[in-house]
Amino acid sequence: MIVLSIFLAVVFLFAGMTYVLYWYDTANGPGLENLRLRCQGRLALCVLQGFLWALIAQSLAVLTFPLGWLPDRKKDEEKGGENNPIIFTLHGLYHNRSAFFLVHRALKRAGFQDVRSWSYASWKTDFFQLSARLAHDLEAVHRLAPDHPILVIGHSLGGLLARHAITMLRPNTVTGCLTLGSPHQGSRLAVFALGKLGRSLAYRSSLIDKIEHDETYLADTGIACLALASPVDNMVLPMEALEPAGSHWQVRWTRPMSHVAMLYHPTMLQEIVLWVKQWGPKKNEASG
C-alpha cells in the first residue's frame, strides 16, 4: 500500500509540474490564442483533460515498461498480399518498445500483421547516429521486400528520428511517416533532460536547423508526412514547436490529451489505423 501511494504521488507530482510549466509558457506567449481557438474557448476544461490523461497515461507507461525487457518474439512476418504494408514503430526518449503495445494490437486487429518495433538506447548516443542507423535498417527491409510499402510511426523523439531518417533514403523506400507529439522544433523542457540526447532537443537548437536543412528536397518525393499534435501537450513547449516546417508536412490537431496519452487514447488508435489504411496500399497502386 505504501509503494502504491508513493507511485501515485510521483505520477501526480510529475503531471502537475509539467502542466504548471505548460500553462506558464502558454499563457505568456502566442500559444494562448492558439489554445483558445483549438479548445473553442474552454481552456480550463482542455487543460484539465490533459492533466487527467497524463495521470492515466504516465501510470500505464510505467506499469507496462517491463514488457519492453522481454525477448522480442521473432517470427516470419505475415505480409499477406501485395498491399499489406510493413509498419515500423519508434518509441520516445527514455521509453522502450512497450510504448506501442496498444497501437500494435489495434493495427493487427485491423489486419496489418507486419508491425515491427525499432528500439534505441536513450543514453550515451547521438541523434544523428540513431537516424542513420534507422535509415540503414529501412533500406535493408526495402531491399528484401521492394513491393511492400513501408510506413514509419514515431512518438515524440521517435517521430523526429523518423523525420530525419527519411531524408537519407533512396526514392520510393518509404511511403509514409506519421509522428505523434514529436518536438519538431525542439522543446523548452529539454533543459531538464538527462543525457546529451535529451538536451540536444532544445527549442530551435542547431539539431532542429540541420533536420530542416536536410529535408528541403522532400516536398517532391510524394512521401505522406503527417504530424498529429495535441493542443495541451505537456512535454513539447511552446505549442508551435509541435508543427514541423516544410510544405510536405501536414499537421492535424487532436483532442486534448497529454504527451504520453497519444500512445493510448482511443481516438489516437483510430487515427493511426485510418492513416495506415489510407497510405498502406499507395505504393503498390502507383506501381500498378
The percent range for strand residues is 5-15%
CATH architecture: 3-Layer(aba) Sandwich
Mean pLDDT: 93
- The CATH class is Alpha Beta
Main pleated-sheet profile: 6 strands, parallel
Helix coverage percent of residues?
40-55%
Number of strands: 6
CATH homologous superfamily classification = Alpha/Beta hydrolase fold, catalytic domain
Q: Structural class given helices, strands, pairing?
A: alpha/beta
As for the CATH topology, it is Rossmann fold
Low-confidence runs (pLDDT<50, min 5 residues)? Answer: 283-288
Strands ordered across the widest β-sheet: 2-1-3-4-5-6
Morphology: globular
- Count of helix runs: 10
Tell me about this structure:
With 288 residues, the chain is of the alpha/beta class. It has a single domain (79-287), classed as Rossmann fold. It is built from ten helices and six strands; from the N terminus they run αααβαβαβαβααββαα. The chain has helices spanning 2-27, 31-38, 43-64, 101-109, 127-144, 157-165, 196-199, 206-214, 266-279, 282-287; strands at 86-90, 115-118, 150-155, 176-180, 224-229, 249-253. The protein has a six-stranded parallel sheet, with helices on both faces. β3, α6 (157-165) and β4 form a beta-alpha-beta unit. The radius of gyration is 18 Å and the shape is globular. It starts with a helix and ends with a helix. Mean pLDDT is 93; it is low at 283-288.
